C-alpha cells in the first residue's frame, strides 16, 4: 500500500484514533507477556518443578506463535484486522480463565494450557497489529512508530511482574523456610494455598480482556488492508512465491534469535538473582529493570530514527551492545552481573522496531504471509529460554555461564543489520 493510499483511507482523526487503539493493545501485549517472569519462580515453587520444567512456561506461551501464526493470517484474511483483534482478546480471556482450574487442582499442565491459549490470542493480535503500525506511515519511520508502541508494551511489562509479584510472591521467602520444616501433608496444604493466589488476578484479567474485545469490535477502528496494491509493475508484483524474498527468511531467523534473547534477559532474571543469593522479595523486581532499559531505548528510537540514524545502523550498534553486555554478564557477579543482564533491555529495545520493517519492506502482495512468518519467529521465546533453563540447571554450566548462549544470537542480528536485510532486495529498488 502506498503512502498516498493510506492517507486517502485515514483522516488525521482516524490516524490518531487508530494509533491510540493499537497502543492500548500493545499495552495488553506487554502486561500479559511479561507476567511470565513472575510465573516462572512462582510455579517452580507451587508446582515443585525443576529449573528446566519451570521454563516450560515460556515454551508453552511462545510456541503458540509458531503453531498459530499462519492460521491467524488466514483468519485475518476472512474477518479483517478489527474483528481479528477482538477475537484475539477473547481467546486471551479464555486462557486467563483456564488458570482457575489449574490453580484449584495445582496442575502444572493446566497452567501450560492456559499460557498456550493466551499465546494463541496474542498471535492473532500481533499478526494484525504489527503490520498495521508499519503501514500507517512511511516505511522509513516505521521503527519510530513501533518504538512508540514498544513504550506502551514495556511500560505494561514493568508493571505486570511488580503487580503479580506483590500478590503471589508476597512472603514467599519466609514460606519456603517454613515449608522446609514441614512434613509432606502440611507442605502440600501450604502449596495448595499458594497456588490459589493467581485466581483473583487472572479472573480480573479475563474480565478486562472480554471488555476490551467488545470495545474493539464496536470501535470506529478502520480495517486497513495490509497488502500493498501492486497497481504498477514492480519487482514484488513479478515474484510468484514468498520463497523469492531471502531477506524475509533471514528476518524470520533474526526475529527468532532476538525474541529468544529478549525473553532470556527478562524472564530468567528473577530466578538468576535467586541463584546468586538474593531473596525473592528483592529479586522479583529485577525483570522490571530490564524492561526499564527497553523503554529508555525505545525513546532513543523515537527521537533518533530516522532523523539522526537509519534503522539498519541503529540495529547494528545495538546488536554490538548485546554482544558486549552478554559477555560482561558472564564475567561478573552479584549486582554487577544482574545489571549487565538488565542492560540487555536497552540493547534489545531497537531490535523489533528495526528488524520488522527491514524484513517486510517491498513484500507487496505477500505482506500478510510475510507478517505471519515473522510472527512464527517469536517461537524463539519458546526454545532459547528452554535451552537456558537446561544449561542453568546443569552442574557443569550454571545460571551465569548459561548466558553465553546469547552471544551467537546477537552476532546473527548484527549480520542481518549489516548484510542480511539487503540480500534479494536490491532488485526491488
Gap between N and C termini: 16 Å
Q: Please give the CATH architecture.
A: Up-down Bundle
CATH-level-4 superfamily name: MFS general substrate transporter like domains
Number of helices: 21
CATH topological fold name = Growth Hormone, Chain: A
Helix content: over 70%
What is the averaged pLDDT score? 85
Q: What does the model show?
A:
The chain has a single domain, classed as MFS general substrate transporter like domains (Growth Hormone, Chain: A), CATH 1.20.1250. Helices cover 76% and strands 0% of the residues. The chain contains 21 helices and no strands. It has helices at residues 3-9, 12-33, 36-46, 51-54, 56-105, 108-135, 142-168, 172-179, 184-195, 199-217, 235-238, 246-267, 269-275, 280-283, 286-304, 311-331, 334-349, 351-360, 367-376, 380-392, 406-418. The longest helix is centred in the first third of the chain and has 50 residues, at 56-105.
Keyword list:
429 residues; mainly alpha; Growth Hormone, Chain: A; 0% strand; disordered N terminus
What is the gist of this entry?
This protein has 429 residues and is mostly helical.
Summarize the SSE layout with pairings.
Elements: H1 3-9, H2 12-33, H3 36-46, H4 51-54, H5 56-105, H6 108-135, H7 142-168, H8 172-179, H9 184-195, H10 199-217, H11 235-238, H12 246-267, H13 269-275, H14 280-283, H15 286-304, H16 311-331, H17 334-349, H18 351-360, H19 367-376, H20 380-392, H21 406-418
